[in-house]
Each structure stands twice: as structure tokens, then as C-alpha cells.
Amino acid sequence: MLGSDPELLRTRLEELKIQLRTLEKEAEELRNNRDSLNSEVKEISTKLRQLVMEYKELKDEYLKLKNQKEEIYNNMQKLKNSKNQLREDLNALSSEVKTLLNEMKNFQEILGRRKVNVFELRERLERLEWEYQTRTFSAEEEKSFVERIRDTESLLRAAERYNECVNQVKGIRQLISEKRKKITELNTQIKELSEQYMQIKSKFKEIREKLNNLRTNITELIDKKEALRRKADEYHGKLINKTIEIKQVREDVEKTALLLKAAEMSQTLTRRRAEMYELALKALEKYKQGEKLSLDEFKLLMEFSLIEHGAASSSS
């Protein structure tokens, strides 16, 4: 029976120790795998923190550039609107000049090629009006004189209007020149802003691509981290189960060792008692032959009940 046979117990103890070493080796391997994965998870976490920080910095720069781009775009639109308004003004002024030139052409037909002095015409009209008021005319003369006054008045009005048109055309052309100059200035400003806009747009695109790449890397690392963490948890669960199994086997080792020690002690005691019994039988033979016995020999005879207590006393 296993509980009392030292050899069987010794064999069982050795098997348990081998099993225990195997389990401890497996547990160590599980622990190393778990720790290795946790270490990798920690490294990925550190890298993730760096990437997230870099992402935030790039995001801030991205938003800053976005605001700059929008601001420049709005300024360009304002300048373009101003330029379009100036172009509309130029078209209106050019149309006005064209109208005035046509009007001047009509007056030119009235005035002819000669150079007309408005001041002289005004004086001539005044003289004619004075003469008309102070002279006595026949009906035919009066009719002719009135016609002269009317012609002079028409010529004066035409000359005055012609001069007004000349001054207006001159003023409008000056205004057109100023507006064209302003358009040139606006074109220069728009060109400068357009170059800035394109530079920012290029930088904006570059940062956006970096952000997309970082976002992809972060997502991939998070997925990898979670996969490694799950694997580490799996190893940890196996390690816990293995630790429980090791604890059980250690208890079995301790129990079996105690049983072996008890069996060995029992075997030793049994062998020792058999040896003492043999000595007791020898002492009994001496006793029967009447030989003198030692105290230890009497004790052995009494221990194994080979003689009565009274007989031992009388013999001694």
C-alpha cells in the first residue's frame, strides 16, 4: 500500500518533485512571456505618448495655418472686390467720357473748326443786347437782329458746354488714371497675398498629410498595444492557474515527504523491535537453562511478555 511502503512513497515523491520542477519551469516561461509582453506594451505606451504629443503640436500648427490661410483668403477677396468695384467705376467713367466726347463732337459741329473764346462771345452778346435795347429797328431789321442775338446765345451756350465737357473729360481721365493706378497697386497686393496663400496652402497640405500619417500610426500602435495586452493577460491567467497547480503539487510533495518519513521511521522501529525480539528469545533460552541474565535481558523478556513479572523477581 502506498501509504506505508517507503519505496512506493519515495518513487511517488521523486515523481512529484519532477512534476514540480516541470511546472515551475513552465511557470517561469509563462512569467517571462508575460513580462516581455508587458515590457513591450510599456514601450509602445511611451511611444504613443510621444506621438500624441507630436500630433497635438502639429494640430495646433495646422489650426494656426488654417486661420492664416482663411485670413489671407478673406483679405484677397476684399482686395478683389475692391478691384472689381474699381473696374466697374472705370467702365462707368469710360462710358461717361464716351458720352461727353460724343456731346463735344456735336458741339464741335456747331462751333466749327475755329477756336471760340467764351469771354469774347459773352461780350458780343452783351453788346448785341444793349444795341437791341437802345436802337430803333424796322421790323425786318429787328427780326434779323434777334436772330443774331439767338445765334450768339446758342454759340455761347455751346462754347460754355463744350468747355465744361473738356474740363469734365480732363477730370474724369485724371480719375481714371488714379483708379488704374489703384488697380495696379491692388494687383501687386493680391499677387503677394496669393504667393503667401500658396506657400501656406502647401505647408498646410504637408502638415495635414503628417497628421494623417500620425493618426494612422497611433491607431496601429493602439491596436498592437491592445493585442499585446490581451496576450499578456492570457499568459497572466495561465500563470495564475499554473501557480495554483504548483501550490497543490508542493503540498503533495510536503505531504508525501511526511508520509515517507513516517514510513521510514515505522520501518526502522519494526526492524529494531524484531532485533530486540531475537535478543529476547536468546535471553529466554538462557533463562530456561538457568543461566544468569542481565537487567536488560530481563527487561526484554518482560517487554515481550515471555516470563511473568513474579518469575523475573524470584530469578533475580
What is the CA-atom radius of gyration, in angstroms?
65 Å
H and E string: HHHHH
Strand segment tally:
0
Number of domains: 1
Question: Into which percentage range does the β-strand content fall?
Answer: under 5%
Q: How many helices does DSSP assign? A: 5
CATH third-tier fold name: Helix Hairpins
Sequence stretches where pLDDT stays below 50 over 5 or more residues: none
User: Could you tell me the mean pLDDT?
Assistant: 87
Helix content bin: over 70%
Reading off the top of the CATH hierarchy, the class is best stated as: Mainly Alpha
What distance separates the N and C termini?
45 Å
| Gross CATH architecture | Orthogonal Bundle
* Largest sheet features: none
> What gross morphology would you assign?
rod-shaped
Structural class based on helices, strands and sheet pairing: mainly alpha
